[in-house]
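Researcher: Let's do a round of design. I'm pasting the structure tokens now; please hold your answer until I've finished.
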């Protein structure tokens, strides 16, 4: 009698731990950044070094903050609860898009010193997407 392997992706403990670390780092970074944008006014954000907030519409700043907080929660909750864990990859994709747009904004404003952080966060988000798709996917609850 032959058995059929229903999970062709071999998951290692190391990949899973590495991906959880990446997810946690991203979640902390985006939760802090998003909460700051949600709870602070434009003048406060500018004083904290976010010069772009001076000319940005108030609601756009709040929307970005909300998207960052939602993305941070989306990186952790679906995987941790195993309820629709594929949403973790979508949250990471959304945060990657935010980083591409942020890098573009900073480049057009000549704020090149900020772009490396955008690239690092983008790379971590891309790593989560790739890893949770190929190396250590999380199965939904049965």
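Researcher: That's everything. Go ahead.
Model: Designed sequence:
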């Amino acid at each position: 009698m032959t058995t059929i392997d229903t999970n062709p992706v071999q998951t290692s403990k190391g990949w899973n731990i590495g991906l959880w670390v990446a997810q946690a780092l991203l979640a902390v970074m985006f939760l802090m950044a998003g909460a700051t944008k949600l709870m602070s006014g434009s003048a406060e954000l500018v004083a904290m070094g976010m010069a772009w907030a001076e000319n940005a519409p108030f609601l756009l700043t709040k929307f970005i903050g909300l998207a960052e907080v939602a993305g941070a929660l989306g990186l952790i909750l679906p995987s941790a609860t195993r309820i629709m864990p594929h949403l973790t990859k979508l949250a990471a994709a959304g945060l990657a898009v935010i980083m591409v747009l942020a890098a573009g904004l900073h480049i057009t404003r000549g704020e090149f010193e900020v772009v490396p952080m955008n690239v690092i966060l983008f790379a971590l988000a891309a790593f989560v997407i790739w890893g949770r798709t190929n190396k250590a996917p999380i199965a939904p609850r049965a």
